[in-house]
Amino acid sequence: MYLQIIEQCKFRILSLKPGQSTPILKLLGSLVKSYPYPMLEHVSRLKELLDYFAFMDGGVASFLVTALLPLFRFSRDLQGYTILVVRKAMFRHQDTVRVAALNAVINLLLAEQLCNKDGLYSLQDSSSQASCSQQGEMACSMGSGSLFQELSGLMQRCLYQQAKVKEVMYNGLVKLVVVDPLAAGAVFDFLLPHFLRFYREDEDVHLDISCCVKSEHGKIYIEEPLDCLLSCISWILLLQPHGKSNCPSDSSLACLGFSFSQENEAGRILSREKFSSALSKIRKFLRSGNLEDILGQTQSTGSTDLDKERGSYCNLILAGIIEVVINVIATELEKATEIEQVHLNKEIIDFINLYDSLEKDKLTLKQSNGIRKIDSCTLTKLSEERLPFMTTSSIYQLLLTTLRLYNASDCSKLLSFVLKASLSHIKSFKHVGDSDPLKALIYGEIKLLGRPLLKMVILLSSRLKLDIGQKKKETKGKKVSEYREEYVSLSLICLKELIQISMESPTFTGLIKDLLSVSSESEVASRSDDEHTNGKLFLEKIIRPMVTELLLMSYFSEVEILSNLTLMLGDILPCKHQNSLGEWAITVCKSSDIMNPKAAKSLLTLAICLRSPQNDLIIAKDIAIELLKVTGSEKDDPIELSETYPLINHSTQTAITSCMLLFVESVISDMDWIIMKLKTYSVASQKKIYLDQTREHTSGLALEEFLYSRAEALVEVLASFVMMNLKDTQAEQLIRLTGKFYKHLAQMSKLRISPKGCKQLLPGLKFQKLVEITCKQLTAPLYNFVALVQRNQQENAKSKAFINKIKRENRCIPDLIFQIEDYEKYLIHLSKASKVNLLRHAKRSTSRDFKILEARNIVGEEEVPSNEPILNNSAAHNDSSEKSDDEDGDDDDTENGVEKDLCPETSSDLAADSGSDDKEEDASPKAKRTKRSRIVQDSDDD
Questions:
Q1: Which of 47, 75, 79, 46 is nearest to 133 (CA)?
Q2: pLDDT band of 902, cuts 50, 70, 90
Q3: HEC profile for 359-395?
Q4: What is the CA radius of gyration of the chain?
């Protein structure tokens, strides 16, 4: 059994895409962890899988080694083979393979450290027992030396590879010290020779940043991420336990493969002191010097684009170093006295001024040099992919400092730096796994940022309100107001992102309680432990008043952020709380004449999505009717502004239309899920496999009634859209959506048809009403909408881009026609089976295989035979689709607006087909008379 499972895992890991193979790797890791002894019998199969290490995706390869780690404690052979594979992969040309190999090495070292800390038999109990040979192998393998001594040469090689590989190694060394802080001395000795390549102490401190950037074949790249190296060193220094930094344990030294003599011990202590002294001197050097002194020749005006690009990379490295230093200062700030805090605050402001000058240089480079835009994007991507250099506690201290200093002095640079650092820190949280040792070190209690961020939002909003009240007309006042508006947006985005990541963790309730405690009105209510109650109070007491104030001040980008936050929190609230929020949003929509498209779109989304089912489609119908008035139709001219919903106007109509179409798409997707459930109930009823017959039958009927009511309401919404003058892309989207909707209608009709051998039930009144409304309000106007779209295509077909749009629409229009006719086909079958005429309100389908010219030109008799079969076939198809009608079919045709006099041949063919079957012998003379009727207008029937 294990052999078959391993073979299947091996096949799927190698054949599937990286994202699809993740569950298979988890299964393999679970087997290794739960059943290590039976898996030892199949080590040869696992070795075969490891042979493909260098050819796998980097993430899959790293995950594979992580899954096999528990077996290394029992099989020295498998561990040695994995090391051999990793050594070979480290010499591959691809960066991704090297990074995967280095991650595997770090995971091996971490596993050995944990093994030495937890003891020999720290694995969880297995359900199977080891054999004697397996126990002997286990005892042999666990008695060997450490891995670091084996892999030290491989780790040294990583110091001379690409910057991405070095970053992974520096983060891995920090993980090793997090697991065992007393192993820091050996890591310092490992890094000191490499660090001295870029740091010198002659007469003055010299930090050679220019050596970190190289050029090759006309391209600039970072060879040494010096900021990551200094961050690694600072983390290790901060992790040292006080009073024990110079006394490493024997287990940590053995783990890292070192056995020091007295001289080596003195050298190890010296390496730590050198790093501590170097960081202190770099801190003083950066504060006292200017950019030209720090960067040297790289900051001089370059005559070429490569020189400017080299300077931008050096600025990026220096900015990272400044973040590392600020993180160290903020850590000291937490434990400093009041007098020390004053000096540390001044030092932080000096470093942030230096950081701001680097940001201005980057902006100047981007504006003055537009040739190498790709490289500026590369800089941004490189900074976003890194782990943050600052901890949650450091950012928290900076936020508190900013709140204290905001009223006393101008701290716009400090505020900008803190908010940007907070946003980067929060966004990177979800990219770090829960099992990563760095997550607890860097992020800790990230919910601590909630209170100061909300206080910042309230403080900045109140300042904006004061600025508007004073009505400053100076240019300086306008700039200050713009900066504050930018900071309000940034702080709101930080708060929204923080709440979003907290919703997926157990800290969400605590975060909402912390945010509620900021408001004085909710002190009593914040003592509740119910997250729904706290979430409702947070939205009512804090968010809703803030939206109202920002709307009055016309800060629409902030309103959009708060609307998205309200929708995110409202989705997890009970239905009654959602309805109250939806009613409030509708009130705002009816009382606000917003001209900003994004803000109007977000508020309307809030009003629709936070209503219970059926009520949401009722609101959507009202909005669609008002939107029709603003966009206009073929018969009616558009109006400037909706009287019911003033935010629907010419400025916002495009954004609101796209918002409504997205909502329609979500409703159609929900219908698909309901139809699948109804199919399950139908199959169960046919095979009579009810578990609880009464409950299954009742739930099936209720679900069916709910589906019909949703479809009926959706028809009323779509009926307004098919009459609008929509743009090309939105018209195409509407055609695709209606095609999907008719496909679901066909499936619903098919479900009503009983299989052979079963009694056919009469279609319910709900279903009949749905069919009637669909035929009257949607199908007939939809044909006119398609004709209008095609006419606009022919009038505007000039450019290549428009021709491509025509081609796309010409692919979706036939699909729509097919879905409509397929739906009507099932209605015909259901009408015949149930003896109920469901197509009495349907419009005759139009044959689209030929074009009927409006001008009635005289056509020679020689052209008639070639066209006659096609026309007869189309007429026969039309007659078969109406065969279930009563004898008043001609009246229905007149009511539905079907033109019978498009051409003589068509009308006579329809008349011939509508005759009785008893007069088949008269069909040929009538056809001949039809041919003559093109020239002689007299008819024998007259």
A1: 75
A2: very low
A3: HHHHHHHHHHCCCCHHHHHHHHHHHHHCCCCCCHHHH
A4: 37
What tokens were used for 885?
A: 């009608």
**In sequence order, which residues have a C-beta less than 8 Å from that of residue 345 and are 6 or more positions away?**
333, 401, 405
Q: Which residue has the tokens 């959506």?
A: 737
Listed residue (74, 137, 159) closest to 111, CA to CA: 74
Coil, strand or helix at 222: strand
> From CA 280, how far away is CA 595, in angstroms rounded?
55
Nearest by Cα to 183 from 113, 122, 115: 113
Beta bridge partners of 304: none
Q: What DSSP designation does 636 have?
A: S
- What's the CA gap between 577 and 602, in Å, rounded? 19
Least Cα distance to 748 among 735, 721, 766 occurs for 766
Q: Which of 607, 753, 748 is nearest to 671 (CA)?
A: 748
Long-range CB contacts (< 8 A, 24+ apart) of 695-700?
Answer: none
Q: What is the dihedral of CA 859, 865, 871, 876, to 10 degrees?
A: 150
Question: CA–CA separation, 422 vs 420, rounded Å?
Answer: 5
CA–CA dist 349, 342 (Å, integer): 11
Please answer whether residues 735 and 808 qualify as being in contact, where contact means their C-beta atoms are separated by less than 8 angstroms.
no
Amino acid at 56: M
744: CB partners within 8 A, 6+ apart:
668, 671, 672, 675, 711
CB 710 within 8 A of CB 617: yes
Whole-number Å distance between alpha carbons of 331 and 344:
10
Q: What is the 3-state secondary structure (H, E, C) of 434-454?
A: CCCHHHHHHCCCHHHHHHHHH
Kindly state the tokens that stand for 272: 């730590």
Report the alpha-carbon angle 446-449-453, nearest 5: 155
Cβ-Cβ contacts under 8 Å for 886 (sequence gap 6 or more): 837, 840
Q: Are 25 and 63 in contact (CB under 8 A)?
A: yes
Q: pLDDT band for position 40 (50/70/90)?
A: confident
What is the C-alpha to C-alpha distance for residues 902 and 850, in angstroms, rounded to an integer? 13
Hey, is 84 helix, strand or coil? helix
Contacts of 301 (CB under 8 A, 6+ apart): none
pLDDT digits (tens, 9 = 90+) for 665-710: 999 999 999 998 888 877 766 665 544 445 555 667 888 889 999 9
Neighbours of 228 (CB within 10 A): 24
Encoded tokens for 538? 């947070």
Distance of CA 219 to the CA centre of its chain: 33
Q: Residue 909 in contact with residue 875, Cβ under 8 Å?
A: yes
What is the SS3 assignment for 530?
coil
143 alpha carbon, distance to own chain's centre = 48
Q: Is residue 35 packed enough to be buried (19+ CB in 10 Å), middle (13-18) or exposed (0-12)?
A: middle
Q: How many residues does the chain have?
A: 942
871: nearest Cα among 844, 899, 841, 846: 846
Look at the block and give the residue holding tokens 């007149």.
894
pLDDT at 743: 94
Closest CA to 103 of 192, 182, 171: 171
Residue 849 pLDDT > 50: no
* Structure tokens, 710: 């949703």
Inter-residue contact 512 to 573 (CB < 8 Å):
no
Q: What is the pLDDT of residues 350-395, one digit of tens each?
A: 899 888 888 766 554 444 444 343 344 444 444 455 788 999 999 9
DSSP characters for 91-145? T-S-HHHHHHHHHHHHHHHHHHHHHHHH-TT-SPPPSSPPPHHHHHHHHHHHTS-
